[in-house]
Give the backbone structure.
Amino acid sequence: MPIYSKTIIEHFKKPRNAGKIKNASGIGEAGNILCGDVMKIYLKIEKNKKGEEIIKDIKFETLGCIVAIANTSLLTTMVKGKTIKEALKIKKEDLIKELGQPLPPFKIHCSVLALDALKEAIYDYYQRKKIKIPEDLEKEHQRIVKTKEEIEKKYKEFRDLEREVLE
Amino acid sequence: MPKKIKRIYLDYAATTPVDPRVLNAMEPYFSEKFGNTMSLHSFGQEAKTALEESREIVADLMGAKPREVIFTSSATESNNLALKGVAFANRKKGNHIIISSIEHSCIMESTKWLEGQGFEITRLKVDKYGLVDPEDVKKAIKKETILVSIIHASNEIGTIEPIEEIGKICKERGVYFHTDAAQTFGKTPINVNKMNIDLMTVSAHKMYGPKGVGALFVREGVKIEPILHGGGHEMGLRSSTVNVAGIIGFAEACKIAKKEMEKEAKRLTKLRDKLIKGVLEKIPGSHLNGHPTKRLPNNANFWFEGVEGESIVIQLDLLGIAASTGSACSSEKLEPSHVLLAIGLRPEQAHGSLRLSLGRWTKERDINYVLKVLPKVIERLRKFSPIK
């Protein structure tokens, strides 16, 4: 498979941290089935001795192409054991670099989606704990929600067209 | 040492290997009999004779006259020539063209371009199997209609269209009928007269010939303009120095098809049906795309609930099986195949599609291997899918 790096193939063949967490501290979802990619991230958050919030455990579920699966799998290995603050610092460029090979332009959104799912999971945790949400995260959350709405709208238009065609 | 994996090619609809007999026939035409068909000397005449003999063989498999066969570089070129050539030559008569909504992208894009040039395009809907209703063709023809172009069999879902009936309607209404037969020529019997075809696109590399060679059947008397102007090759319809070696290969592929087609179609149909039955039985949440019986002998196309097609293709490739998908993840547009949407699949369903296309070297043990491996692949991918 010359088009995908060893790392991508490895994560695809043996996804790390695949599955769910029961009684998760936060759950985040990104992507849309309409586009063929849906990623879900489950977090277990605990505080360390210094009182920092640590990602004690993380699991993912992904419906999508090989790059989507590899991205989510890789991301879970990068943030497990890290503080939330450290986890939020990861950028799509970091993921792409770790994947080991330039991605085709239309695959970059797979890395974005994996990070979005993580951000949404942290957002969910903050909301559950009624912790004040940092401004940057709030902005990201708004963007993710807006993207979802746009896709839903496109999807609805398609459904309307479908109805029109069938009737 | 890792176990050496088998490599099974099940993407014959994308392209086929050149048959060794074809390669053998082509070989002298590269360095030995290399002449230009337009040259007057013996080198040229040798090439010219080979070209015209090949034309007879290709025409024979179509039931056409040799002078009705125009060699091109590909099915895409043939389709472009048919649509644009007929459109511009018949502008005075009208500007309306009818196609189906499941044509190959070269027809979809050519007609889109023609729309920009002032032509009106009707894209006929298909039913859930991908079938065009000949009645719809009849209803869509109007006084301005100059051409109807309907694919003979879908390259994606394999559905074979009722082109004989559609051709008959066109004949009665005095409208040219073109069909893209890239997937059927050499696999199912075709007779341009019996099937009322005025123009027909065919391709060599889909039938064990070389890439870079196609042809367009143009019935005598059809008004058509060339796209490529130049030295006047191919009855003035397609200037370019002739690809003699490629055409020799195409003709050899036609000879083999004529001899073996009928038996091969029966063999492949049996394997195809075994594959379809096995997949639908063994994999829960699996569905067949296309018509159960009116389909190409070598095409099987499915969609699976809760999985994405590209990950299926890559997983299969890692296990030695080459297949294809209509999922958007594999395209830059991130939109799934227009054919799958046209048969009523929702985008998320189209994303889970898989095409397996069989061919001359497909054995029953290959199908058995797929039936052993594919259920496991789908089960594995579903395991970590958030959509159940």
In short: Chain B has two domains: 8-16+260-383, 20-256. The mean pLDDT of chain B is 96.
